[in-house]
Amino acid sequence: MSTNAEHEPEASRRQEPTAPPPTPPATKPPMTGEKPSISSRTGYAWVGLVVGTLIMIVLLIFILQNLETIQVSLFFWEFHLPIGVAVLLSVICGALVMALVGGMRILQLRRAAKH
Asked: What is the pTM of this model?
């Protein structure tokens, strides 16, 4: 046999050091058709703050437009309040009563779930 490079076996020709295979570039995960969620607790708190501020502005305008004083009687007490303030206080009292009723119902349901 001849010592020509043409006739050498394949394995002897590949003795050059081989570089590691190139790593694929980092890719984004495939899209599933849904938009990624960008909501967070901070975002919800900010939206709640903005909505609360707008409601407070509307309430302030309501009170300022209804400054005529009326007489309010409750049992043996009598008050003289602007109409806007009287309506606002009655709404707040109604909300507190509903919160009390809702809180009692939540406690009932928790007790029932434990047993």
From this structure: 0.51
Chain position carrying tokens 């570039």: 25
3-class state of residue 15 by DSSP: coil
Residues 69/80, Cβ–Cβ less than 8 Å: yes
Q: How far apart are CA 41 and CA 84, in angstroms?
A: 34
Residue 82 forms beta bridges with which residues? 69
**Cβ distance 89 to 81 under 8 Å?**
yes
CA dist 19 and 95 (Å) reads 73
Q: What single letter denotes the amino acid at residue 11?
A: A
**Residue 42 has which token pair?**
């901070």
Give the contacts of 67 (CB within 8 A, at least 6 positions apart).
Answer: 82, 83, 84
d(CA 36, CA 50): 24
Q: What is the per-residue pLDDT across 31-50, written as a single tens digit (0 to 9) for each?
A: 666 666 667 878 888 899 99
88, 63 Cβ separation under 8 angstroms = yes
